[in-house]
Specification:
This protein folds into two domains: 358 residues, Purple Acid Phosphatase, chain A, domain 2; 201 residues, 5'-nucleotidase,  domain 2. α9 packs across α13. The chain is 21% helix and 25% strand. The chain is globular and about 75 Å long. The strands form seven sheets. The chain has a seven-stranded mixed β-sheet with strand order 1-10-11-13-14-16-15. It has 612 residues and is an alpha/beta fold. Belongs to the 5'-nucleotidase family.
Length: 612
């Protein structure tokens, strides 16, 4: 058997753009007929091969979010098929990747390891303190080869993303760990992130790799809606193009190069329907979401879509623009799963002839011999030293040691777990606490109301978490930072009562250009009711502050983070505020200051109510 060829082709963006301009895109951007509501777990075949075959493997994951340490609290386990399995942590991810590669190699299947975005951004302190250089170093270590960008790759702006790819010290903080930062050894693909001046993608749109002489093409992109969910200040020089049109354009370019086996790395996704027991990690139960119409418009050459963004696990086959099967996968988040995709290529046609896929749980626990997992005295899952990858652990420990004095500093306390799970009205106990913290942080400038975006609340506060050996209820800076990791500024500005109501109306689809319902978390004293059945622009009623109805003509000082104040999450009405005042420090500093007055109890989650 010929040795597998590991070379890959990096085609200059400018040359690809010229080629792309020559390619017609018939039907691009048009949705095919609606697919059926149910899809079976994935195993797709495309007819008997017309010649000799080549076998290979893709290993993929998505939405890693710098989860170097094993997740804790409610996120410590993967809940699937009625069972809970402790999972995650980069030294365990490395072990499982190596194990799966070895199994494939024994079967004669060379491996390509791919990602679907959000590898960085929204990360814990161990990564974020060093501008996510630790995560990239670890992605290099575990053997990642190619990945799409995700929306969180833009958290610090386009210029920072390019530095992350190419290397070099941070322009402000320098090389913090005394080592030069050499960049990503894998390739970030950004087909639909286009420079407004040049009209070209800011990073390569495609990559071609060869599997035993047969070319396989990768197209990578983030969701078109990225501008609405990142800080607008960092992306002023780029635009984000339609997923279907962009994927098909570069698919046609790949065909010009003779590449007919194509994989789309797409940071957009969907989810399985809820069920009891919870669907399995490789199931496709009642699948729905933005990914369905996107796949329905794709060229048939794109036989695999490795997706992300929704943090859900699934393994599906969905119909493409020709009604043929496209394999669609997602590995949840935080490195707790790996998608194992085995495939066969027809050497004569260069196309996939067969694809199968499943998700594998990155177990980190110690079996108790009774079908469960060993726990320590505090109830936390014990970690299995036998499944630790020494090389990955060495890199991770370097950064854990460097950040420990900051991360393990006690900053306050809570009286019980404070969760970010929202109730029927969209309000969560932790959302209340964060809004209260920001209000308290800005009362000195006269703030009366604080609003917090729910997507900025990244983890629960668990009373029994003991990151630095602290006792029950004590909270460290690292734990607080994991809840609010974006280093947003805290700003206070003046809104009229009418403008405030419009901000709240803009939580709902159909008002002010809003496309996704997002319920803002509100500070103590602000109450209102919303009705799902009311028309857009008229959903909010009974809006009061400390029991007094909001006066449309009066002025109110409202605090938010600068992500919201700049129009993030579609809240363009917040950009209409005047007299902006920026508080010292970051939003996490507001939370830390509030926790210091503790023990802080969970928020009541009763400030927002619903009506028919």
């Amino acid at each position: 058997m010929p040795l597998p060829q590991r070379r890959h082709l990096a085609v200059p963006v400018a040359a690809l753009a010229v080629a792309g301009a020559l390619v017609a895109i018939p039907g691009a951007g048009t949705a095919a007929a609606a697919p059926p509501a149910e899809f079976t777990p994935v195993s797709a075949a495309y007819g008997p091969p017309k010649g000799p075959t080549v076998k290979g493997q893709f290993l993929s994951y998505n939405d890693f979010h710098g989860a170097i340490d094993p997740p804790t609290g409610s996120g410590a386990v993967v809940n699937a098929s009625g069972t809970s399995t402790p999972a995650g942590g980069v030294e365990y991810l490395a072990t499982f990747l190596k194990r799966l590669r070895a199994e494939a190699k024994a079967e004669g299947r060379p491996t390509i390891t791919a990602g679907a975005g959000d590898l960085i951004g929204g990360t814990p302190l161990v990564s974020a303190a060093f501008h996510d250089e630790p995560t990239i170093e670890l992605m290099n270590e575990v053997g990642l080869q190619v990945s799409s960008v995700g929306n969180h790759e833009f958290d610090e702006g386009v210029a920072e993303l390019i530095r992350i790819q190419r290397g070099g010290c941070h322009p402000v903080d320098g090389c913090q760990d005394s080592d030069p930062y050499r960049g990503a050894r894998f390739t970030y693909l950004a087909a639909n992130t286009v420079d407004k001046k040049t009209g070209l993608p800011i990073l390569p749109p495609i990559e071609i790799r060869h599997v035993d002489g047969v070319p396989v093409g990768f197209i990578g992109m983030t969701l078109e809606g990225t501008p609405g969910i990142v800080n607008p200040a960092g992306i002023t020089g780029v635009r984000f193009t339609d997923e279907i049109e962009t994927a098909n354009k570069w698919s046609n370019v790949l065909k010009l190069f003779g590449v007919k086996a194509q994989v789309l790395l797409l940071h957009e996704g969907g989810s399985q329907a809820t069920a009891t027991p919870t669907p399995g990690v490789s199931d496709c139960n009642g699948f729905s979401g933005p990914l369905v119409p996107i796949v329905a418009g794709l060229n048939p050459e794109i036989s695999v879509v490795i997706s992300g963004h929704t943090h859900r696990f699934y393994s599906c086959k969905l119909p493409n623009s020709k009604g043929a099967d496209t394999v669609v996968t997602s590995a949840g988040s935080n490195g707790q799963l790996i998608t194992d995709i085995d495939y066969t290529l027809d050497r004569r046609t260069g196309r996939f002839s067969e694809i199968t896929a499943k998700n594998v749980i990155v177990e980190n626990g110690v079996p108790d011999g009774k079908g469960g997992w060993v726990r320590d005295a505090a109830g936390a899952y014990a970690k299995n030293p036998d499944t630790v990858d020494a090389a990955a652990k060495k890199v991770a420990d370097k950064y854990r040691t460097a950040v420990a004095p900051i991360a393990n500093r006690l900053v306050g306390s809570i009286s019980a777990d404070i969760v970010r799970t929202a109730g029927p009205a969209g309000e969560s106990p932790l959302g209340d606490v964060i809004a209260d913290a920001q209000l308290a942080y800005t009362r000195s400038v006269g703030a009366q109301i604080a609003l917090m975006n729910p997507g900025g609340v990244r983890a629960d506060l668990d009373a029994d978490q003991s990151s630095g050996g602290e006792t029950y209820g004590q909270v460290t800076y690292g734990e607080a930072f994991t809840v609010q990791p974006f280093n947003n500024l805290v700003v206070t500005q003046t809104l009229t009562g009418a403008q405030l109501k419009n901000v709240l109306e803009q939580q709902f689809v159909g008002f002010g250009g809003q496309t996704t319902q997002r319920i803002l978390q509100v500070s103590d004293g602000l109450t209102y009711t919303w009705s799902a059945s009311a028309a857009p622009g008229s959903k909010v009623s009974a809006l009061t502050l400390n029991g007094t109805p909001i006066d449309p003509a009066a002025n109110y000082l409202v605090t938010t983070n600068d992500f919201l104040a700049n129009g993030g999450d579609g809240f363009s009405n917040l950009t209409l505020g005047t007299g902006r005042i920026t508080a010292p420090g970051f939003d996490v500093d507001a939370l830390v200051a509030h926790l210091a007055t503790g023990p802080i109890a969970p928020g009541p989650a009763n400030r927002i109510s619903t009506a028919p």
